[in-house]
Amino acid sequence: MNSAIHNIQLEQVKKAFNQGQDNEFWAIRGIDLTIQLHSATVLKGPSGSGKTTLLSMIGCLSRPTSGRISLGEKRLSGLPERFMTSIRQSTFGFIFQQFNLIDGLTVLENIMLPAYPLGLDFAELEQSARQLLHQFGLANKASSKVEWLSGGEKQRCAICRALINDPEILIADEPTANLDSKLSEEFMQMIDGLKSTGKTILLTSHDPLVYESPIIDRVIGIRDGLLED
Amino acid sequence: MNHFFQKQRYLIDFTLASLKRRPGKNLSLLLVYTMIVFLLASVMLFTHALRTEAGIILQDSPEIILQKMQAGRHALIPAAYLEKIGHIRGVVSKHGRLWGYFYDPAVKSNYTLMVPSERKLKNNEIVIGATIAKTRGLGTGDILAFRSADGRPFSFRVKDILSTESELVSADLILLNESTYRNFFNIQEGYYTDLALSVRNPNELRKIAEKLVVKLPDTRPILREEILRTYDAIFNWRQGIVFVLLSGAVLAFVIFAWDKASGLSAEERKEIGVLKAIGWETSDVLRMKFWEGSIISLSAFLLGYLAAYTHVFYASAALFEPILKGWAVLYPDFHPLPFVDGLQVATLFFFTVFPYTVATIIPIWRAAITDPDTVMR
User: Fold this and answer.
1) Chain B touched by A85 (CB under 8 Å)
2) Interface ipTM > 0.85
3) Is this prediction's pTM over 0.80?
4) Cβ pair B100, B176 in contact under 8 A
């Protein structure tokens, strides 16, 4: 979508929760990192290492307590909320660990949801959503409620939702945590397909099936809020 | 511009889908909300209707009524006072009136006996209100017997029954001629219950009333506008009583609405976080929730108001009749003229829809301005 983006740059990024209180906790304690675009990167680390927090800051879902995050020439960490939303909308597609689909809505409605604020023509939007459903083997589930889907179907639905606005960067948090081995392999094949279209893929995982996959260009270790050597 | 309208359409579609996703919660809220609007609107419509009706009725009443006072009590007024009033400037006409209350132990209620000025009746003939006819099971030609002032049995023959259209004023009314009235109440010639005066210029009413008191110091003039004010005060007081009685229900609704508004469920908070994470702006979320609150509150307002309108104007306000209407034991069948008062609708709207919408929006705004990651955690 935006070909002017060169890379994602993090400089001395720190993130604290409950800052100034008794239970203050530093999830990220000073990270310098550059992520190349059009590549597949995995943030690898045990639970509580800070990889999800780092991912959410890169994806503009939260702000660092200090430090700087840039997307090409754009400094994300200092942007007002309105511009953060705009970048989130146009640049990033998210696949959450628990999928975070909205129960009670159909598969098609869930997929179209990120595009509603753009006010696109309904016929065009529906066509795009149906193309994605077809591409990811969910064409026959378009009218099903998402709560009726299997784990693998839910994840494919979440991928379709992440792609509806044609984002430059796809972010997935522990994407195989709720899948069996077969579905995990299928997921990695889908990621391979997306990577081949030029998308930047950024994943968190502590699943060897993900970080040892040949599809992955770079694995970054993270522990206790710091990068591993 | 097209994008703007398309976006609103998407937001409304999503809002409707959201409402359908929580049918139990939203239907119960709608029901309670509708009930509150119904109760408040019923009271407002009914008291307003009574007030309007009283005003219409009093339009035809005399502008000044003059009563004689004796030891602070209302006493019979001598006909000679009509002469004493003489030629006060501005008084167009004056005449004596005969009327009084009679307690009927058979139905434990008071009747108003009155000598009409425009209707000619023979001795012992009466015309009665529809409610008396109904309560006592009387028809034209039947006999109604009371004990007179001196304890004699006194029989009246029902000549006619007053039309039900005027029932609010005529429910407990018995019309009879002057001779029968004097005979029944044992009032000698030359005395009236009070005197009725009409004036040429309504602006001079107070001045004429002052002159009357100077000329006849043992009398009390009562102006029509004072009676209207008294009615107004009575209906306002009754309305206030009902509002106090309803305050429990209103309070329950406020707590219910506040709980719903301030206590966003974990599921709702997470949904707001997800919507923001996938690209919705804070304003989109607020707009969507605004539509949600508006749909519920406007539906409840419309349904409640329509139900109240039907209740008051087509079912005689059956729920509040005894409190709001009951100044007599004989409750007239009262069918007020349907009306819609813009100011009243606006007042009710302001006190029901507006607080709910604000109370709903504030916690959503709080959730929507927080980072999506924090809201979803």
Assistant:
1) yes
2) yes
3) no
4) no
